[in-house]
Structures are given as C-alpha cells and as structure tokens.
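Same chain as my last thread, 596 residues:
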Amino acid sequence: MSPPFIKRYLLALDRHKWAGLAGFIAVTGLSGGVAAIQPPPSETYLAQGLLTYSAPPEVFSATGASLQQQGQAVTAEMLLAPPVLDYAIQQLQQQKLEVSARRIQQNAKVVVTGTSGPAPAEESKSNAGGLRITVTYRDTQEERTAAVATALLDAMVEQSREFSVQQLNRISDNLNQLLPKVTRELRQTEQKLEEYVRQEGTALQAAESGALLSNITSNQQQQRQIRLSLSGIEAQINSLQSRLGLTPDQAYASSALSADPIIADLRAKIYQAEAQQDLLSKTLRPDHPTMVDLQNQFTTYSQLLQGRVTEVLGGQGAAPLQGSSQIRQAINLDPARQQLASTLVGLQTQRETLQQQYALLAFTEQEQRQEYAGIPNKQLEQQRLQQQVILKQTFYDQVQARLADVKLAQEEAVGSLVIAQKPQIEIQPPKGASSLVILLVGGFMGLVVGGGLVMLLDAIDPTIYTLEDLQAALRSQDVPILGLLPSLPWDGEATSLPIIAEATSPYLDPYERLRGTLRRIGGSKALRLVLITSTLSEEGKTTTAYNLAIASARAGKRTLLIETDLRSPSHAAALKVTPDPRQPIGTPCANYGQLS
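reply #2:
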C-alpha cells in the first residue's frame, strides 16, 4: 500500500497533468535556448609559484626559536588572510593594476604539503621532506596573472616576518604591563619581611643562638638559689622570734624606741616617780599633796612618753603599742636584745627583698617560656615570608630575563618562508559548460518545476479526494467517525441493491463493527432508533440501512427497517419480500427479523 502522500500526489498529477507538462516543457525549452546562445569560453592563464621553509640563522634568544617553530605551522587560511591580500593589493597598485581582494581570494589557491619543519641535513638542498607551499592564481590576462601571483608570494614572505614581529611586540607589551605589578608585589613582600624581622628578629636571634634557653635555665637556677636563701632566712627569723618573743614589726618598734635618748630619759623619770610613790605610799595617804604631785608627774611623763613614741614610730607603732605597759615593755630592751631585734628586722627586710626577686624571676621565666613556645611559629612565619620573597624575586627575575630575551629576539626577527620558485605561467585550455549538461540540468529543473506546479495546484484545491484527507477534515471539526464501510460489488441494475445476505460474506464485518460502535455510544441506555440520511442522492443510504439491519438481525436483535423515502420505489424485493398492495402510501415496511 502506497503512503498517503504518494497517493495524493498521483491523484493530483492525474488532475493537473497538463499544467505540470507545460511547466516541464517551458523550463526545458528555456535551458535549450541558454545552451544555444552561450558564448564560446575564453582562454585562462594559470600562474604557479612555490614557497618553502627557510632554515633560520643561528639565534641566541629562546623566544625567537619558539616563534620560528610557530611560523612553520602555516595553513592556507593564514596565507590568504586579509593582511596578506592588502599587502599584495598595495604592490599591484604601485604597478598601476587594480584587483580587488575578493577576486584574488576567489582565483587564488594555496596548497600546503610536507612536514611543518626543516628538512634533514642531507636533504636541505632539494628541500625533500620539508614544508612546501604551492600558490596558484588563475586569470584571463597573462600580465595580470603573473603580477598578482608575484605579489602574493612576496606578501606571504612578508607576512611570515610580520607574524614574528607582531608576536614579539605583543609579548613585549604584555611583559611591560606585567613588570610594574611584579615589582610592586616584590617590594611589598620585602617590606613585610623587613617589618617582621624588625619586630621579631631579636627573639628569633636569641632562640637561634641559644641565649633564650640559657636565660631560662639561669632564671631557674636563680630561683632555686633564692628559695634556698629564703629557707635559711625563715629559719633565722623563726629562731629570733622565739628568743625575743617579738614579731619583726614589733622588734623594729622596740629597737627604735629603746635607742631614743628622750624616751630613755622619760623612762627614767617615770621609774623615779613610781619608786617615790611606792616609798611614800607606806606613810602618806593617796590624797596627800606629795602623792598627788607624784601622780601628776607620772601622768605627765606617761603622756610625754606616748607622744614621743608616736613621733619616733611615725604613727605606725601606735596600733601595736596602745597601752603604757606595752610601751614600757617595748622600750625596755637591753643592748643585747636591741642587737637581736635589729638582726630580726634586717632578716625580715632581706626576706621581703628575696621574695620580690623570686616573684619577678618567676614572671620573667613565664614570659620567656611563652616566648620560647612561640618561637616555632615565628620561625615558620619568617620562613613563609622569606619563601614569598624568593618566589616574587624569582618571578621578577624571570620577567626581566624574558623581556631581555624578547628584545634580543626583536633584533633577530626574520621570516620563515622564502620563494623557492617564481610564478610560472601556463595557458589553460578553454573550458565551458557543455550543451548536454545544460539540457540535462534544464530537464531536471523542468521536472522539479512541473512537480512543484502540480503540488501547488493541489494545495489550493479545496476538494477532498482521499480517505485520509476526509478523516483529517472531520477530526478538525470534532465530527466523530462511527465506522468505515466498504464499497460493495454491484451489477449496476437500478432495481437491485448490493445486499449482504450470506453470513460468511467478508463485507459483513464492517457493518458489525458499525453496529457495535452505535451500541457503545448509546451508553447505558439501549439504542432504539437509527436514522440514516445524506445531503445528495445515491450516496449509499439505502444500502447502509439494509445491511445494518441485516447485521442487527443476525446479532439476535429485533429489527424493524423503515423506508422513509416516499419519492422512490421500495427495495424490499432485494430481501425477497413482497410489498403489501393494500398500503395506501405504497411504501412497504420489511421486518428482516421474520426471515429465516
């Protein structure tokens, strides 16, 4: 079965065959006219030249050698680039020749063969195995052909040199732009290292020389010596305290008071007054004037003594020596006890001095230990800064070396291509389009135009000719398709119908499917009435109604077939049913369910 498109095209070809034939004849005739009037081809000239890779001279810069290697990797597109064409056009303009770049690009051809490198030493004379570039140019004038080919070869050689120069200039510009940034970064890194060494250099030097560790050890030794001295002093202080019964502060006060002459004089007068009171108290009463006078003297001397004690001790001895008995006891030290008290006070002062030294040494040791613990981190930080300086310095040196190398390469820049063979002119035999080729092409285009004309006329024709088009049109209008009925064989008699009376007929299945579809669209409600009609006559209404009734009756359904076309005769004879002549209308009703 052919595809729908082919089927539709064949139908359209049958309808519009004369239009397609007319298009084919018109295009073919036009191509014949073109073949008849075409002018004879003119002669052309072909210039062919040869470029090859030139072994570079000895260069001292690595950049120049690298660019020479890059210059060997040439392509046809690079050799016909706009700069090459512009240079060639300038050369031609000096010779009073006007040739456009587009024409040169269309008529020129470049073929690169061989390896992208220099030939071996034994083959250098013949350039065998080396880079070979064949340049050809085709034109209708011999002089212009030779001039353009020569200009192209010169332009390509110049382009190879300009390529190296441009690359070197680009590299030099990039390095000159990069150098200030690299220099600034190097200076910043050096300043960071210098600042760090200025701050931490002393500690790092002390750690590296071992002075810091020696200071910690010496500090610990001094602390041990101070602890030993403190233990000895503590023993002496405890011994003197037990002998004197005084604390170091009390011993200081007693020693100071006992050594004061005024206090000694007042003490003697107080003793004298007390002695007289004790002596006279045996014979005199307390209120006797002499006793009262002695008591007043005693009180006065005691007050003077208290004031003098305050003066000597500067107010600090008032708290521990508040009572007169305490004062008298404190000032009553003999020379030997005064010496012991002075020794006790000196030992107390020495102990306080050593304790302060010990606390200072302990604090210093803690600081030194913390500093020693941070030495590895400081060393690592210094090494990191030094490494950064080394890296920046190395990068700076590389940029400077590369810049010097590029400047040397600019002085050594040469082209990598040379002309191995100047353009040779050849006359090409005239070539033109064959009349047979033109006719064949015209015939093919005529077929295309004729077929396209047939398809165009079919596209603008609104008539439906195929089943597929009909189904598509119905679906576009949302019209449901209940079934597809076949075209039944018919003998052509007007009084007979193509009735499917045999149960084994292959044409019965489509009507069975139509009946099933009608039953399904009825849903839960049984379908009781089916009306078949059409817009025109002889479209198969009667045949469809009769065969659908037969299919329904064969399915066991009680079926009544009613002919409602009152202007046409009955077709009941097709079912071998005789119409009832008593019917006033003259249109019989056939009940196919009564037939056996």
